[in-house]
Amino acid sequence: MIQLNATFDLQQDVISSILKKEETARATTDVSDPRILHVERDGGVLYCWRGATGTTRIGKYDPHSKHNKLLYTFDKQVCVSSCSLNKEETLLAVSLTQKHRQEELLRPVSKCLTLLIEIHPINNTKVLKAVDCRVRVQFLHPDSVQTSVLESHLLLITEDGYVDQFHIMLARHEGYRVVMLNPDRLAKDRVAEDFSWVQWDSQNQRLYFLTSRERNMECVQFHPQRNCETVFELPLELPCNPFSSMSFVHLGFDHYYEDGREEGISLVVFTDKTERSMCVCYSHPVYSRKEVRYTIAFVHKGCSKTFTVALDQEALCSSTNLQPLFFHTGHYVVVFLAGHFLHLLNTRQQDLLCYSFFLSGSDACLGEVGGSYVGGTHGGSSLLELQSGRMYTPTISSAHLMDFLHAERPEAQRLATLQCMLVYKGAEPEVERQVIDWICGDVLSFHSFDQIQEFILASLYRITHQHSLCLDMLLPYSSVFQKKELPVALTMIPGVKCTPALLPQPLFKGKSSEKRKASHQRHLEENTKKVLSMVDTCRLDTSVVPLLFQEEDPQQKGLIGTMVDKLREHLNRHLPQLGKKRTDALVVNYVAKLLELVHHMLELLWHKYNLGPQVLCLKQQGSPEEWSVFHVMLRILEATKGLGLPLPPGYNSLLAVLGLKCVCRHSFLQFVDHSLLQLTEPFVSRLMKDLDNSDENEALKFSILKRLPEPMLERVCHLWDHPVSSACISRNYVSQTLQNVQIHQNQDKIMGFGLEDPEHSSLWPDFLPLSYLTKVLSDLEKKALNPFEEQENVDARFVEETALKQTLIELRLEDKT
């Protein structure tokens, strides 16, 4: 799982180079006892060796230029326990371990001598401290700042539990010589005291230390302007008396003390500015050789997890040290106990155990290093094998991940593998292609998770995380949380007990925030236009997938606009500090990337199965390749529907075309009735035009027309050349015309025009069938007998009053009584 890439080899990169140079100068050469001392912020490796004439030399290896540089030579053999070089490479701080000789037993000699040496050129040497305790030295390497004053700042960290910062003023003589000003009066400040554990963070120029009494972890930030400040304090629930002696972390290697490991627990802090994460990892005292306990405190998440791992008793015979090794790669913290287990914890998604790897047996190996002790360097992102003098950069192997994905492994491991490949390795096009190929080729679904949903959410999470910070806690990264009850397989690791807990809130110094009102955007059409304008137009111009992004598709466009609106509202509520413009850009880009992901999957499918424009021909039966694509597209539809995500406009039309070609007509209509397929207007229009009026096709068209909503039916009915279609058109036209006639009649009555007035009557429309029907009815009405003509002795006065009464009623001038 973990692949170790060699970045430095003491024998090949240093010793061979030294031997070549010395062979050029003289015939006899001797390089003995080479040792790595420290790794500075720029990656430069400080080392020492003993020469043939009894000298001790200190050099630096530059990993960028691959060159070695001699820094200083002691004219006798000394034991270098700590070493640091300033950024300008003009000063060298060295801490020497002094051992009593037989002839010096009666003379008082300090155990540790700390020196400050001018090396540009070699000139003055000053003794900074001579004490009977271990001392580590570390120059500050601040970010570049323009200053007219030459100065360096040096930290002295002592075993007695205090840190002093020396401010060293420099001067340039003769244009090139750099010397110390007033070396006898160097200014110094007390940075911290009364601690039992200390760690140096070279990348962020921070010092972490653990106070002896309250067991609080404090962090001191060093700034270029000579000042430093305590950034925060974090209470930790550590075991009692965790350290029997002072513990130095990432402050170089004292080979004269650390040949045997320091007693006590292992404690290390990992920070990542890009990930905005901070993890405090520590082990627990080993009271029984049956189990090992360790805790990972996710400070950026406000929680911790304590793991208790049962050990394989057969493997205990070869294990002498049961304190695990902690290091990190990417956004994974790795816990390794040689011969027992390899635990990779996801620092982004620490909620469930299924997003992390726990490997044992033959899988729990660490590259070619095997079971030898490996120490963390350079902020924990590099590993050092002390015995061979090799340094490695650990990475997660893509080949191993693909093997895990295809192998018959527990679903939790395969989910962790899929998440790792998509989020951690997903930026590699080949890895993404392999994942899509696996999803499309794996017909069997998993009980615990949906592969397509995981692909969409994890890929969107990775893309958005690259473009903006502070969104990992607001955007979903997995579909597992949509389940009401999580499967046991995703929440437990066999043989491992996990105890979660909430962390006490760290006390930050001088931090404030402002709240802004969230702005709500309701114009869904504008949202959709912005999203579609962000979609990669270059890729769409060369796309082989038909119909996508080529239709109006009001349903999907409405979903796109709604998602933009809701996501904008969500970010404005939780991250008001981003501002309106940045939030709008993030939201639009997020939804656009979602649509591009789906389009990218279909592009790979089209190329994989070599599909062409014949896909849209409804007269042909679907091929096996088209059936495979239809199956995958159906899974994509289910996955996005389960998450409430939109699809590219035209997706449902293309899916309906493939569905009609690949399944029988009865099954197709069942898919429609169960909302798995949608009868979009472009699809129905294509069906009405392409299929002839055979008995089978006619029955299909009738079945589809019955399932259409009335507005769509009126729009597509005229596309079918059939008597039923013509009758439908006629009925609709007559109904609409009669409605118009009624409206005009009411208007004519109000205006005072009679029905027989040919200039104002509305009973003579332009539609010929209706005009003919109206004329026939009018002629029949004229031929009908008038009942008043055959009757004599008619009361004219009564008829006149009745007619007047009816007129008043018709004109609504008098109520009917």
Automatic annotation (TrEMBL):
Residue stretches making up the Gamma-secretase-activating protein C-terminal domain: 595-702
Pfam families: GSAP-16
UniProt-listed InterPro entries: GSAP_C_dom, GSAP_fam
Alphabetical GO biological process terms: positive regulation of amyloid-beta formation
A GO-annotated cellular component: trans-Golgi network
Protein name (record): Gamma-secretase-activating protein isoform X3
Organism of provenance: Clupea harengus (Atlantic herring)
Gene giving rise to this polypeptide: LOC105910462
